[in-house]
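SAMPLE LOG
Freezer: B-3
Tube label: C17
Construct: single chain, 194 aa
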Amino acid sequence: MNNPSHYFLAVPLPNEVKSGLWSWARLLKEHTHYKTWTGEADYHITLIFFGAIAEEKIERLTEGLTSIVNELEPMALALNGLDGFGKNGHPRVLYASVMENQALIKNQRRIADICRQCGFPVENRPYRPHITLGKKWVGRQPISIPQLQEHLPTLPVTRWHAEEIVLYEIHPGQYPKYLPVKTFYFGNENRVDL
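STRUCTURE (predicted):
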């Protein structure tokens, strides 16, 4: 019997934003120590992480998302610098923060509601949109995120519009690690890429 694959829903990033974040990651690797660094092709803004889902439940999820995709709002997104989750000096996750955006928060809540209605568990923690750069801190010396931020170049693209969400399947040990399964475009229920 096959183990079910792991999935998540996310907002994809334009290639220009991914490229800029990759330039940050290359510099950060010189000054910080994380066991895992996200590859350039895998950058995204997670909306809902599901974990393992049996193949037969994917259809129910897809139907639920297709039923609400016309209700979702286009989002004007922007990066907001460098930050981390965890203790000061050695955050377990280093990430590019995403500026607070009402459309993003509203869309995430609506998506979480439909996922619950379709029988999928959804975290109750407050939603904190971010783009993971590195995780599993293994350094010995504490790091200062404000000091790291000072040495990072200004990115050429920090603002963009998003009008789609993607269901990704996780493929550990592969690159890219996150492969799109279905893309849902806002305002056009007939356009769902498989």
